[in-house]
Amino acid sequence: MNKLTVAACELCDSVGGQALWQDELCRVVLVEDRDYPGFCRVILNRHVSEMTDLDQTTRQRLMRVVFAAEQALRQLMQPAKINLASLGNQVAHVHWHVIARFADDKHFPGSIWGEVRREGVPRRVDRDALRRALQQLLQLEEV
Amino acid sequence: MNKLTVAACELCDSVGGQALWQDELCRVVLVEDRDYPGFCRVILNRHVSEMTDLDQTTRQRLMRVVFAAEQALRQLMQPAKINLASLGNQVAHVHWHVIARFADDKHFPGSIWGEVRREGVPRRVDRDALRRALQQLLQLEEV
Q1: Best of A53, A90, A111, A137 to mutate (most B CBs within 10 Å, chain B)
Q2: 3-state secondary structure of B2
Protein backbone atom coordinates (compact mmCIF):
# COMPACT_ATOMS: atom_id res chain seq x y z
CA MET A 1 0.00 0.00 0.00
CA ASN A 2 1.41 3.41 -0.80
CA LYS A 3 0.32 6.99 -0.34
CA LEU A 4 -1.87 6.98 -3.47
CA THR A 5 -3.63 3.75 -2.64
CA VAL A 6 -7.02 3.90 -1.11
CA ALA A 7 -8.16 0.95 0.93
CA ALA A 8 -10.15 -0.40 -2.00
CA CYS A 9 -8.29 -0.75 -5.30
CA GLU A 10 -10.55 -1.33 -8.27
CA LEU A 11 -7.89 -3.36 -10.08
CA CYS A 12 -7.49 -5.62 -7.04
CA ASP A 13 -11.25 -5.93 -6.68
CA SER A 14 -12.28 -6.50 -10.30
CA VAL A 15 -10.93 -7.83 -13.59
CA GLY A 16 -11.10 -4.34 -15.13
CA GLY A 17 -12.63 -5.22 -18.50
CA GLN A 18 -13.36 -8.18 -20.74
CA ALA A 19 -10.66 -10.77 -20.15
CA LEU A 20 -8.72 -11.67 -23.30
CA TRP A 21 -5.72 -13.50 -21.88
CA GLN A 22 -4.15 -14.15 -18.51
CA ASP A 23 -1.37 -15.91 -16.68
CA GLU A 24 -0.20 -15.84 -13.06
CA LEU A 25 1.55 -12.48 -13.50
CA CYS A 26 -1.00 -10.38 -15.36
CA ARG A 27 -4.12 -10.20 -17.46
CA VAL A 28 -5.03 -8.52 -20.75
CA VAL A 29 -8.51 -7.02 -20.91
CA LEU A 30 -10.44 -5.21 -23.58
CA VAL A 31 -11.63 -1.83 -22.31
CA GLU A 32 -15.23 -1.12 -23.15
CA ASP A 33 -14.77 2.28 -24.75
CA ARG A 34 -17.10 3.11 -27.61
CA ASP A 35 -14.62 5.59 -29.07
CA TYR A 36 -11.68 3.23 -28.77
CA PRO A 37 -12.61 -0.34 -29.71
CA GLY A 38 -8.91 -1.28 -29.94
CA PHE A 39 -8.09 -0.33 -26.37
CA CYS A 40 -6.55 -3.04 -24.21
CA ARG A 41 -5.16 -2.92 -20.71
CA VAL A 42 -2.43 -5.15 -19.39
CA ILE A 43 -2.96 -5.31 -15.65
CA LEU A 44 -0.52 -6.73 -13.12
CA ASN A 45 -2.35 -9.18 -10.89
CA ARG A 46 -0.73 -8.02 -7.67
CA HIS A 47 -0.89 -4.54 -6.21
CA VAL A 48 2.32 -2.67 -6.99
CA SER A 49 2.41 0.97 -7.94
CA GLU A 50 5.51 1.51 -10.10
CA MET A 51 7.33 -0.58 -12.69
CA THR A 52 10.58 -0.09 -10.74
CA ASP A 53 8.94 -1.73 -7.73
CA LEU A 54 9.23 -4.94 -9.77
CA ASP A 55 12.47 -6.81 -10.43
CA GLN A 56 13.97 -6.74 -13.92
CA THR A 57 12.74 -10.21 -14.91
CA THR A 58 9.18 -9.44 -13.86
CA ARG A 59 9.26 -6.13 -15.73
CA GLN A 60 10.46 -7.90 -18.86
CA ARG A 61 7.72 -10.52 -18.56
CA LEU A 62 5.09 -7.83 -18.20
CA MET A 63 6.43 -5.76 -21.11
CA ARG A 64 6.42 -8.89 -23.29
CA VAL A 65 2.66 -9.05 -22.76
CA VAL A 66 2.28 -5.31 -23.44
CA PHE A 67 4.15 -5.71 -26.73
CA ALA A 68 2.10 -8.77 -27.65
CA ALA A 69 -1.06 -6.68 -27.15
CA GLU A 70 0.46 -3.99 -29.38
CA GLN A 71 1.32 -6.57 -32.02
CA ALA A 72 -2.13 -8.19 -31.90
CA LEU A 73 -3.84 -4.80 -32.32
CA ARG A 74 -1.57 -3.91 -35.22
CA GLN A 75 -2.30 -7.22 -36.94
CA LEU A 76 -6.05 -6.93 -36.55
CA MET A 77 -6.67 -3.21 -36.95
CA GLN A 78 -3.72 -1.70 -38.85
CA PRO A 79 -3.87 1.47 -36.74
CA ALA A 80 -2.08 4.68 -37.69
CA LYS A 81 -0.29 4.51 -34.34
CA ILE A 82 -0.16 2.54 -31.12
CA ASN A 83 -0.17 4.43 -27.84
CA LEU A 84 1.34 2.83 -24.75
CA ALA A 85 1.03 4.32 -21.29
CA SER A 86 1.41 3.43 -17.65
CA LEU A 87 0.04 6.36 -15.67
CA GLY A 88 -1.78 5.19 -12.54
CA ASN A 89 -2.37 8.60 -10.98
CA GLN A 90 -5.90 7.58 -10.09
CA VAL A 91 -5.41 3.86 -9.61
CA ALA A 92 -1.84 3.29 -8.46
CA HIS A 93 -1.79 -0.39 -9.40
CA VAL A 94 0.49 -1.14 -12.37
CA HIS A 95 -1.53 -1.30 -15.58
CA TRP A 96 -0.63 -0.50 -19.17
CA HIS A 97 -2.93 1.15 -21.68
CA VAL A 98 -2.40 -0.21 -25.19
CA ILE A 99 -4.47 1.81 -27.62
CA ALA A 100 -4.93 1.52 -31.38
CA ARG A 101 -5.15 5.05 -32.77
CA PHE A 102 -6.55 6.25 -36.09
CA ALA A 103 -6.29 9.56 -37.90
CA ASP A 104 -10.09 9.97 -37.69
CA ASP A 105 -10.52 9.02 -34.04
CA LYS A 106 -11.88 11.38 -31.40
CA HIS A 107 -8.58 12.88 -30.22
CA PHE A 108 -6.01 12.19 -32.92
CA PRO A 109 -3.23 13.37 -33.04
CA GLY A 110 -3.66 14.31 -29.38
CA SER A 111 -3.63 11.77 -26.58
CA ILE A 112 -6.96 10.16 -25.65
CA TRP A 113 -6.79 12.11 -22.37
CA GLY A 114 -6.68 15.45 -24.17
CA GLU A 115 -8.99 17.71 -26.09
CA VAL A 116 -11.75 16.21 -28.25
CA ARG A 117 -11.01 17.05 -31.90
CA ARG A 118 -14.01 15.48 -33.66
CA GLU A 119 -16.72 12.91 -33.29
CA GLY A 120 -14.89 9.64 -33.70
CA VAL A 121 -15.58 7.31 -36.62
CA PRO A 122 -17.17 4.07 -35.33
CA ARG A 123 -14.97 1.01 -35.66
CA ARG A 124 -15.13 -2.51 -34.33
CA VAL A 125 -12.68 -5.11 -33.28
CA ASP A 126 -13.21 -8.86 -33.47
CA ARG A 127 -12.70 -9.92 -29.84
CA ASP A 128 -12.28 -13.58 -30.59
CA ALA A 129 -9.68 -12.84 -33.24
CA LEU A 130 -7.90 -10.60 -30.73
CA ARG A 131 -7.96 -13.40 -28.15
CA ARG A 132 -6.53 -15.84 -30.67
CA ALA A 133 -3.83 -13.42 -31.82
CA LEU A 134 -2.72 -12.80 -28.23
CA GLN A 135 -2.71 -16.49 -27.43
CA GLN A 136 -0.65 -17.24 -30.48
CA LEU A 137 1.86 -14.42 -29.96
CA LEU A 138 2.36 -15.30 -26.31
CA GLN A 139 3.09 -18.92 -27.11
CA LEU A 140 6.09 -17.81 -29.14
CA GLU A 141 9.48 -17.34 -27.54
CA GLU A 142 10.17 -14.02 -29.29
CA VAL A 143 7.38 -11.48 -28.92
CA MET B 1 9.39 5.95 -43.11
CA ASN B 2 5.72 5.25 -42.49
CA LYS B 3 2.48 7.00 -43.25
CA LEU B 4 2.73 9.32 -40.23
CA THR B 5 6.27 10.38 -40.93
CA VAL B 6 6.86 13.64 -42.67
CA ALA B 7 10.07 14.14 -44.57
CA ALA B 8 11.59 16.05 -41.67
CA CYS B 9 11.44 14.34 -38.28
CA GLU B 10 12.29 16.59 -35.37
CA LEU B 11 13.73 13.69 -33.37
CA CYS B 12 16.00 12.77 -36.27
CA ASP B 13 17.01 16.38 -36.75
CA SER B 14 17.61 17.45 -33.17
CA VAL B 15 18.54 16.05 -29.76
CA GLY B 16 15.09 16.91 -28.40
CA GLY B 17 16.06 18.41 -25.04
CA GLN B 18 19.02 18.69 -22.71
CA ALA B 19 21.10 15.54 -23.06
CA LEU B 20 21.50 13.63 -19.80
CA TRP B 21 22.81 10.29 -21.02
CA GLN B 22 23.30 8.46 -24.28
CA ASP B 23 24.60 5.34 -25.91
CA GLU B 24 24.46 4.04 -29.50
CA LEU B 25 20.81 2.94 -29.14
CA CYS B 26 19.15 5.91 -27.49
CA ARG B 27 19.47 9.11 -25.52
CA VAL B 28 17.85 10.46 -22.35
CA VAL B 29 17.02 14.15 -22.40
CA LEU B 30 15.47 16.50 -19.90
CA VAL B 31 12.42 18.21 -21.36
CA GLU B 32 12.35 21.93 -20.70
CA ASP B 33 8.87 22.16 -19.24
CA ARG B 34 8.37 24.74 -16.52
CA ASP B 35 5.43 22.83 -15.08
CA TYR B 36 7.23 19.48 -15.16
CA PRO B 37 10.85 19.79 -14.10
CA GLY B 38 11.08 16.02 -13.67
CA PHE B 39 10.14 15.21 -17.26
CA CYS B 40 12.62 13.10 -19.22
CA ARG B 41 12.38 11.60 -22.67
CA VAL B 42 14.11 8.45 -23.77
CA ILE B 43 14.53 8.77 -27.52
CA LEU B 44 15.57 5.99 -29.88
CA ASN B 45 18.41 7.25 -32.06
CA ARG B 46 17.10 5.71 -35.27
CA HIS B 47 13.77 6.42 -36.91
CA VAL B 48 11.30 3.63 -36.08
CA SER B 49 7.67 4.27 -35.30
CA GLU B 50 6.48 1.41 -33.06
CA MET B 51 8.09 -0.64 -30.29
CA THR B 52 7.11 -3.84 -32.13
CA ASP B 53 9.14 -2.67 -35.13
CA LEU B 54 12.16 -3.44 -32.93
CA ASP B 55 13.38 -6.93 -32.05
CA GLN B 56 12.91 -8.23 -28.51
CA THR B 57 16.50 -7.59 -27.41
CA THR B 58 16.44 -4.00 -28.63
CA ARG B 59 13.10 -3.39 -26.92
CA GLN B 60 14.50 -4.75 -23.67
CA ARG B 61 17.59 -2.55 -23.96
CA LEU B 62 15.41 0.51 -24.54
CA MET B 63 13.03 -0.29 -21.67
CA ARG B 64 16.02 -0.75 -19.36
CA VAL B 65 16.88 2.90 -20.02
CA VAL B 66 13.24 3.97 -19.53
CA PHE B 67 13.16 2.21 -16.16
CA ALA B 68 16.51 3.73 -15.19
CA ALA B 69 15.06 7.17 -15.90
CA GLU B 70 12.05 6.27 -13.74
CA GLN B 71 14.34 5.09 -10.93
CA ALA B 72 16.55 8.18 -11.14
CA LEU B 73 13.54 10.51 -10.95
CA ARG B 74 12.14 8.57 -8.01
CA GLN B 75 15.45 8.76 -6.15
CA LEU B 76 15.87 12.49 -6.71
CA MET B 77 12.31 13.79 -6.50
CA GLN B 78 10.20 11.27 -4.57
CA PRO B 79 7.20 11.87 -6.82
CA ALA B 80 3.69 10.73 -5.95
CA LYS B 81 3.66 8.78 -9.22
CA ILE B 82 5.71 8.15 -12.33
CA ASN B 83 3.95 8.35 -15.71
CA LEU B 84 5.38 6.43 -18.65
CA ALA B 85 4.10 6.84 -22.18
CA SER B 86 5.07 6.13 -25.77
CA LEU B 87 2.51 7.91 -27.94
CA GLY B 88 4.13 9.35 -31.07
CA ASN B 89 0.94 10.48 -32.82
CA GLN B 90 2.61 13.73 -33.77
CA VAL B 91 6.20 12.55 -34.07
CA ALA B 92 6.17 8.88 -35.06
CA HIS B 93 9.72 8.21 -33.94
CA VAL B 94 9.92 5.97 -30.86
CA HIS B 95 10.32 8.08 -27.72
CA TRP B 96 9.21 7.51 -24.16
CA HIS B 97 7.93 10.18 -21.81
CA VAL B 98 9.03 9.57 -18.21
CA ILE B 99 7.33 12.10 -15.96
CA ALA B 100 7.55 12.67 -12.22
CA ARG B 101 4.07 13.60 -11.01
CA PHE B 102 3.04 15.34 -7.80
CA ALA B 103 -0.34 15.78 -6.13
CA ASP B 104 -0.02 19.57 -6.50
CA ASP B 105 1.13 19.64 -10.12
CA LYS B 106 -0.84 21.29 -12.91
CA HIS B 107 -2.89 18.26 -14.02
CA PHE B 108 -2.79 15.73 -11.19
CA PRO B 109 -4.46 13.22 -11.05
CA GLY B 110 -5.15 13.63 -14.76
CA SER B 111 -2.55 13.02 -17.43
CA ILE B 112 -0.33 15.96 -18.40
CA TRP B 113 -2.16 16.00 -21.76
CA GLY B 114 -5.52 16.57 -20.09
CA GLU B 115 -7.38 19.34 -18.40
CA VAL B 116 -5.49 21.87 -16.29
CA ARG B 117 -6.60 21.48 -12.65
CA ARG B 118 -4.57 24.21 -10.95
CA GLU B 119 -1.55 26.40 -11.27
CA GLY B 120 1.32 24.04 -10.66
CA VAL B 121 3.60 24.44 -7.66
CA PRO B 122 7.14 25.36 -8.84
CA ARG B 123 9.72 22.66 -8.30
CA ARG B 124 13.28 22.10 -9.46
CA VAL B 125 15.42 19.16 -10.30
CA ASP B 126 19.17 19.02 -9.98
CA ARG B 127 20.27 18.14 -13.53
CA ASP B 128 23.76 17.11 -12.57
CA ALA B 129 22.44 14.82 -9.87
CA LEU B 130 20.01 13.36 -12.42
CA ARG B 131 22.88 12.77 -14.86
CA ARG B 132 24.91 11.07 -12.16
CA ALA B 133 22.00 8.90 -11.03
CA LEU B 134 21.33 7.75 -14.59
CA GLN B 135 24.99 7.04 -15.20
CA GLN B 136 25.22 5.03 -12.03
CA LEU B 137 22.03 3.05 -12.60
CA LEU B 138 22.92 2.22 -16.19
CA GLN B 139 26.32 0.90 -15.18
CA LEU B 140 24.62 -1.74 -13.09
CA GLU B 141 23.61 -5.06 -14.56
CA GLU B 142 20.15 -5.04 -12.97
CA VAL B 143 18.17 -1.91 -13.66
Answers
A1: A111
A2: coil
